[in-house]
Amino acid sequence: MELLVDRVAGLDVHRDTVMACVRTPRVSGRGRASEVREFATTSLELGLLARWLSEMEVTDVAMEATGIYWVPVFTALESGFEVMLVNAAHMKNVPGRKTDVADAVWIAQLVEHGLLRASFVPPPDIRQLRTLTRYRRALVNERVRAVQRLEKTLQDAGIKLTSVASTVLSKSGRAMLDALVDGVRDPDVLAELARGRLRPKIPALREALAGRFDQHHAAIVAEGLAHVDGLEASIARVSIEIDRVLEPHQWAIELLDTIPGVDVRTAQVIIAEIGVDMTVFPTAGHLASWAGLCPGNNQSAGKRGPATTRPGSPWLQKALVEAALSASRTRNTYLAVRHARIRARRGKQRAAIATAHTILIAVWHMLSQHVEFVDLGTGYNTHRSSPEAETRRLVRRLETLGHHVQLDPAA
Hints:
alpha/beta, globular
């Protein structure tokens, strides 16, 4: 097999140790020499690893994407070497030969023959932003769980607030919970705390708030409200830090904010996951494939089987699907019409994925060309198809509804 890289290193990364194998040409000029060393994952030891690789004149380094453990190793080496982060599924060793040393040697052998494909790793500033946006998402999810625990406690006490109000922690709901914690038990007094559109529902509120709210319920609700307040404060602080990190890329946020269904927070997540440099993805299709928003290949013996979407970034997928569902509720937009057309034929889930795919394709073009989103209009699909095809589609639709259709040519 052809040798493409002379001096390479393969790293088998773990939590506490890194097994490094360096492969170089032999002094005699015949064959290859391997040298294996083990290093700890502390900053001092990683510095020694980088120094050893420099002394060995290594140019290319590869490692598995092992949880979060690869990050400090990658950070320590990226400034001095061509570092490749590789999907572990793409570099499986022969079964029965699984040791740390064998894995490091195997990775180095794959690198020197050019058999590995590097995963996308954004630049350091985008990685910092990604860490912040993912942490904010975790805080938001924890807040959702805290609110659900509050609802569970209220149901245990026989307080049916959500049977009348849309949510537990609206302004009216929060005032009622605070009053319950303070010792108010009279349903009439609690119902009078309703505000806005909840005021006409005061009779229903009186009935819903007549429960068995005891002291232990008050203690749990008080702790739950304090937990929610703490999480909201944390989310606000993290959002401020995200805004600070994103200042150099504010132009990208403003561009993405023009897409129907994409708000500032969603745009921040998109930038954090894919960055602003679209040259790392040769085409929009490559970006959609990396994100896991396109069908996989499932073909054998000339026949195509059902293919689900490829694995991709769950953080990006969730943000884009939420944007797609939001866009489906907009009026007089291309994305809403596209979602409705696909939903009628393939269902809600496929329609959401397809619309998310469309948004991501638009994002690639917008960031590549620095242009705002251009809505294609509600009649784009109709104008794109021929009159004959549109006629056949409408006839099939009418026949499905039970009508007999006979067309007479216009005069």
